[in-house]
Amino acid sequence: MSATAEAPTPASPAAEEPFSERLKAATWGDHSAAENHGFTKALLGGELSLAGYTAMVAQHHFAYVALERVGRALADDPVAGRFHYPELERVPALEADLEHLLGGDWRDRISPTPATRTYVARIEQMADHPAGFVAHHYTRYMGDVSGGQFIRRIAAEAYALADGAGVAFYVFDGLGSLPEFRAGYRERLDSLDLDRAAAGFLVQETRLAYQLNTEVLADLGRKHV
Q1: Cα 139 from chain centre
Q2: Residue 50: CA atoms inside 13 Å, Cβ hemisphere, count?
Q3: Which of 13, 43, 131, 190 could form a disulfide with 18 if both were Cys (CB 3.0 to 4.6 A apart)?
Q4: Across 95-99, average pLDDT
Q5: What is the CATH number of domain 19-224?
Q6: Among candidates 178, 176, 171, 169, which has minimal Cα distance to 92?
Q7: CA torsion angle for 28, 31, 209, 106 (degrees, to 10)?
Q8: Do 3 and 169 contact (CB within 8 A), yes or no?
């Protein structure tokens, strides 16, 4: 559900590794597993059916409703609140995409897969674990802002989606420069005031978030690949 990202950069032995680099290195294998899943490969290769793409958009909707609800609840938290970006919220764009792809009755035509229900339940638990919320926020949004731009181009061409209709999810015009946004996001990760236990939990929860995303892809792949 995310796409190509930069490989982790080896840290200089003379300097303490920034937390953002530690996080990327510790979770790179999990990220690669999601990226190399058969469903993702079909999507990135322009070989996924429109039904498969639409099903993915629907599962995104359930995940982002939960993620953004928890994010708003934690907006004043000293850890999670640092990652509360109203301009990042994706639910309105997903709703526009689903209306274009499925019609005005789209809400009656979608349902979460078993893997998505598990994923959503885990996100909702993070309302009590701010560092864990950051893990899920990082996993989803950084992938969307980065590799999601490639998916946007592939989908627009493969499904003849003109003028941004059906791919609004990947449009981040409110962020300005995407490279600058990503750099600022990493700086926020690096400046988090986390003790050893909280930092370790954030890393492990990021790994779990990637695994849960991969299970969602597997559910989709069984039907659409």
Answers
A1: 5
A2: 13
A3: 190
A4: 98
A5: 1.20.910.10
A6: 169
A7: 160
A8: no
